[in-house]
Design goal:
By secondary structure, the protein is mainly β. The protein is built from one helix and eight strands.
Length: about 140
């Protein structure tokens, strides 16, 4: 995608997510009771109801869970095509994040493709974007 982006408006709950990229890491909310990660952040754990929630650094590695390629120019300053993807973070099955894939031709995107996070800073927000990153061989 090139051009303007509609930025998120971080609130008290989501600010740690949107600013972690300043340190080059992806942070996800995690429950201190049942240890499950959850995204987007909530005031209570979706699994066990605990309010003992903290922010934990994750690897930033994920796989493409689903995606769509946008060709429509919805905004005069934004040109496509670009790929909007739901990625599943490696830390936990079903831990999904909606983002944009960069540096991958839309025709080359595949479900199950290994990706890794990178950040695009715009004002005081660090947008987590994902690029193709083959898993290191064992
Ligand atoms: Zn929990």
């Amino acid at each position: 995608m090139t051009g303007a982006r509609t930025l998120p408006a971080p609130d008290e709950l989501s600010r740690p997510f949107w600013t972690a990229g300043e340190l080059g890491v992806l942070r996800i909310q995690r429950c201190g009771e049942c240890r499950r990660f959850q995204h987007p952040p909530l005031v209570r754990c979706r699994a066990c109801g605990s309010d003992d929630l903290t922010w934990e650094e994750v690897s930033g590695r994920a796989t493409v869970y689903s995606f769509t390629v946008n060709h429509q120019q919805w905004h005069p300053d934004v040109t496509g095509p670009y790929t909007v993807a739901i990625v599943e973070l490696d830390e936990q099955p079903g831990l999904l994040l909606t983002s944009e894939l960069v540096d991958v031709e839309p025709d080359d995107v595949r479900i199950g493709m290994a990706v890794a996070v990178e950040f695009l800073q715009v004002d005081d927000v660090w947008l987590p974007l994902f690029h193709h990153a083959p898993a290191p061989s064992p």
